[in-house]
Write a structure and sequence with these properties.
Chain lengths: ~375, ~525
């Protein structure tokens, strides 16, 4: 046998630790929310806020101060100069969004300022990205919609697969989708809509006792809030690639959660011990897989963080945080929530088994009858 | 049993060969060789962020196009009515409405018959005035408006395609987003980005306006922003007699637009300065003749994109159907302007909603870094998995390489585009693809622990883990599909690599590695290296 990172007879009372883990989660979420509140919401990159980014590579070294001085007289709105890389040759210029400033004007202004104030310096504008304010607002609502849609579809999938309630879940999805369209029609802002619909989705799952879906949704929201919060704490900007990372985190975290849920479902079969024990043994049994997969995934994400370069760094960072938090949530958040519905889950399980038995008996009788005729 | 294994192994080999056939052409060295000619032509395309180029999203102001054609139609109505002996007042347009009167109320029936016959696109309200005249307020019917809006978008698309063709860019990708009234342009590998953007982005919305003759009092008021009714103030950048602040007051309605240009070329004016000569179409020439005839001794302002290039005096009716645009051009600027006018001016102004330009050097750097990260990540994962699972780990590592081949081959076969986030997606896949194998191996270990024979453990391990693998990977695919729907170029590249990577890893873990295990573990095997 090969190596073992996790002992075979691992038996930790994860469910018993849930009060501690809930506290950790709540503190992390609150810290993130506080940071968001103090900073007045997430700081958006140009994809979402609109604005211009110019990436310049100089052939000779140049200090921040020299560059700022060279651009001081130019009329560039909200100019921020940012150096990156090791050699003080690479700079990012960020400009705030402005209807009257076109990318071409920025290019011309920068070229003119350098020609006048930095004679002898050769440079290349390696990248210039401009997003208009309208386009930025479009991207913001689309990103929110995408995140919500992912959460909703996954909860439908889980309700169907784990509780055999495809019908209920689909009706829920259609009603929620319809109410979004309705809210759209009466002109409710997209942001409010999404918050409202998310809360309604949670309430509906609660009401319909869709325990697994509720667990999964809460752990997804948990991961998103914490990742976004930590990003805000670190003063990182949100752009389209970060949303891609967040959606990947949602998929990854749910992947983890489903593997534990799958084991719980398997262990529930013909087992009348308390749900707490079943959840605990399921988490323990899948622990070594959880740790291994997180490790290999984190290995490559770290490779991206270190070697991927500046453009990919924030993306990899969001993945790194998200995968850590997602692993934590599938162990400590998603499964313990099932306990709230202990009775429902167990009566449903018993009923299902009895139905199956009944059906088997009936089938046996029928074949018996058939034989008699 | 034996037979089924042979069948499965051969199927695997066929798939591997097929994957290699699709993958190899993406490697430049292979493409040149004789082998490259026999292989399929599929290739992985590099996204703009990797090979450099321009991405533009242009918002087309279709409302303005509607306003323009409405104002044009107003003049047509007046003209056509006059030919039938019906006289109307000069139509004034107010956003999406056209307002004019028919002073002689008794001609109402004849006039409305003419409107219905010749201008069926218009719907109108008619109100009888106390002085006996009829006041009309006309607008495009809804379906006509929609059709004209779509037409404006299509025309803008065609114009931009024309300009890019004349500019000469390899493999441009130009498409419209009808719902958003937007045109998306991707020009890969373009070097002279500044000039390209100038040529594409210039509306080249050419209009001719008659200058309003102002009394000195009106001129003084106009300088303070109080304009006479039905006029607008435009900046004057060329020669002409305007206000003191360098602007000029003209009639709001354009008398002629760039729609009627047949040709345009660069030339020199009488002072030997570069200018652009425009030739009108036959219809345009007729209109130009009428306009100049009606406005002798007034000034005609030549307005390009809201700026007056010059406002020469009309000394007589001009019937040769051409006009000069002068201004302070360099020869290159005059050439570009002629190109733009020749390719057709845009039917409506466009604004650049989004522009992303990446130079080629940056892309190469990104590719090198991405390949580095992928290789190091791959080595780390392979090493880890072999140390952890011994020989079974070697199988898993082989599957991982197979995954990557399948992923890249899939990208080539679908003609997918590799972007920077896409490279990150490949690296991420390397980490996540082992998950399926880990699930199976952990299951096998569990079975061994409770005393199953290796053969039984492998069988149970695979069958139990398969459903879990399906269930858990589907959620990541759901996320990737949504991402694809929502994202733009680079993000889509990520969604594609993620999805292909997951599908490849499910296939290799469930099908291929099962076949290898079956080949390896015999019923009499007592030990298994896992």
């Amino acid at each position: 046998m090969g190596l073992h990172l996790i002992p075979n007879n691992l038996n930790i009372n994860f469910v018993g630790l849930r009060k501690v883990s809930y506290c950790i989660s709540i503190v992390l979420i609150l810290v993130g929310l506080a940071s968001l509140a103090i900073k007045g919401g997430p700081s958006f990159g140009i994809d979402f806020a609109g604005g211009t980014v110019v990436q310049i590579k100089f052939d000779q070294q140049l200090s921040d101060a020299e560059l700022k001085k060279a651009l001081a007289d130019s009329d560039l709105p909200g100019l921020v100069v940012q150096s990156f890389g090791e050699t003080s040759q690479d700079y990012l210029l960020r400009l705030s969004s402005n209807e009257d400033v076109s990318a071409q004007m920025v290019r011309d202004t920068v070229n003119a300022a350098f020609a006048q104030n930095l004679p002898g310096q050769t440079y290349e504008i390696q990248r210039l990205e401009m997003v208009g304010p309208k386009m930025g607002a479009d991207f913001r609502t689309k990103a929110l919609e995408a995140l919500y849609l992912a959460t909703l579809l996954m909860s439908v999938y889980i309700s169907g697969r784990f509780e055999h309630r495809w019908g209920t879940a689909l009706i829920m999805a259609v009603v929620l989708g319809g109410s979004m369209l309705g809210l759209d029609a009466i002109g409710v802002p997209k942001g409010l809509q999404i918050i409202g619909v998310t809360l309604v989705t949670l309430a509906v799952c609660w009401r319909l006792k869709l325990a697994f879906a509720l667990g999964a949704m809460i752990s997804i929201l948990h991961d998103l809030f914490i990742t976004v919060g930590i990003f805000s704490l670190l003063d990182k900007e949100f752009d389209l690639t970060i949303i891609a990372a967040l959606l990947t985190v949602v998929g990854y975290s749910l992947n983890d959660t489903i593997i534990v849920f799958d084991r719980i479902r398997e262990n529930l079969r013909g087992n009348r011990s308390p749900l707490t024990n079943i959840i605990n043994s399921s988490i323990n049994q899948t622990m070594s897989r959880t740790v291994l997969t997180s490790l290999t995934t984190l290995l490559v994400v770290v490779a991206l963080l270190i070697l991927g370069g500046d453009i990919i760094f924030d993306f990899a960072l969001a993945l790194f945080i998200g995968i850590l938090v997602g692993t934590f949530s599938s162990i400590f958040v998603a499964s313990p929530i099932l306990l709230v519905f202990e009775k429902t889950i167990q009566t449903r399980q018993i009923k299902q088994e009895e139905d199956a038995k009944e059906a088997a008996k009936r089938a046996a009788n029928r074949s018996h009858d058939g034989a008699q005729v | 049993m034996r037979q089924s294994i042979i069948l499965r192994i051969s199927l695997t080999l066929v798939i591997l060969l097929l994957a290699l056939a699709y993958l190899l052409p993406s490697i430049p060295a292979v493409q040149e060789s004789p082998l490259g000619k026999t292989l399929p032509e599929a290739k992985i395309n590099l996204g703009l962020d990797l090979m450099g180029g321009i991405y533009l999203a242009l918002d087309v102001d279709v409302d303005k196009a509607i306003e323009n054609s409405l104002s044009q139609m107003g003049q047509d109505i007046r003209q056509t009515a006059r030919e039938d002996g019906l006289h109307t007042t000069r139509p004034g347009s107010d956003k999406d409405r056209l307002v004019f009167s028919l002073p002689d109320g008794s001609k109402r029936e004849a006039f409305e018959k003419l409107l219905a016959e010749k201008f069926p696109e218009l719907g109108y309200d008619a109100v009888a005035q106390p002085d006996g005249g009829i006041r009309y307020s006309a607008r495009f019917k809804d379906e006509a408006k929609l059709r004209r809006e779509n037409m404006a978008l299509d025309m803008a698309l065609k114009t931009i395609r024309n300009r890019i063709d004349q500019f000469g860019v390899a493999e441009p990708d130009i498409r419209k987003q009808e719902a958003q009234r937007r045109i998306i342009i991707q020009l890969p590998g373009l070097k002279d980005t500044e000039r390209a953007i100038r040529v594409i982005g210039q509306t080249a919305h050419l209009e001719f306006h008659i200058q309003r003759n102002l009394s000195s009092m009106e001129a003084e008021r106009a300088s303070r922003g109080l304009l006479p009714v039905g006029t607008i103030k435009l900046p004057l950048i060329g020669r002409g007699s305007g206000l003191e602040d360098g602007s000029i007051v003209v009639e709001r309605d354009a008398v002629l637009t760039g729609e009627y240009i047949e040709d345009a070329y660069q030339n020199f004016d009488q002072h030997n300065r570069p200018c652009v000569v425009i030739k009108f179409t036959r219809r345009g020439a007729a209109m130009f003749e009428r306009i100049t005839g009606e406005n002798v001794n007034r000034n005609l302002a030549i307005v390009l994109d809201g700026r007056v290039y010059s406002a020469p005096n009309i000394s007589e009716k001009i019937s040769q159907g051409s006009a000069n645009i002068t201004g302070s051009f360099s020869i290159e600027e005059a050439n570009d302007l002629a190109l733009v006018l020749r390719a057709g001016s845009l039917p409506a102004p466009v604004t650049i909603g989004e522009e992303r330009t990446v130079g080629p050097s940056l892309g190469q750097d990104s590719i090198n870094r991405g390949i580095n990260a992928a290789l190091i990540g791959l080595c780390a994962v392979v090493l880890f998995i072999i140390v952890y699972y011994s020989f079974s780990g070697v199988i898993a590592a082989t599957m991982l390489l197979f995954d990557i081949i399948l992923l890249l081959a899939g990208m080539a076969a679908f003609g997918a585009t590799l972007t920077l986030p896409g490279i990150a997606g490949i690296v991420l896949t390397i980490g996540m693809a082992v998950d399926a194998n880990v699930l199976i191996f952990e299951r096998i270990r569990e079975e061994l622990r409770i005393g199953s024979t290796p053969e039984a453990a492998v069988k149970l391990g695979f069958s139990r883990a398969t459903l879990t693998i399906m269930d858990s990977n589907l959620t990541t695919i759901i996320a990737a599909v949504i991402l694809y729907q929502f994202g733009t170029g680079p993000v889509r590249g990520f969604a594609v690599t993620l999805t292909l990577g997951i599908i490849a890893s499910m296939f290799t873990a469930i099908f291929v590695s099962r076949a290898i295990f079956d080949l390896w573990i015999k019923p009499q095997s007592r030990k298994i290296s896992i």
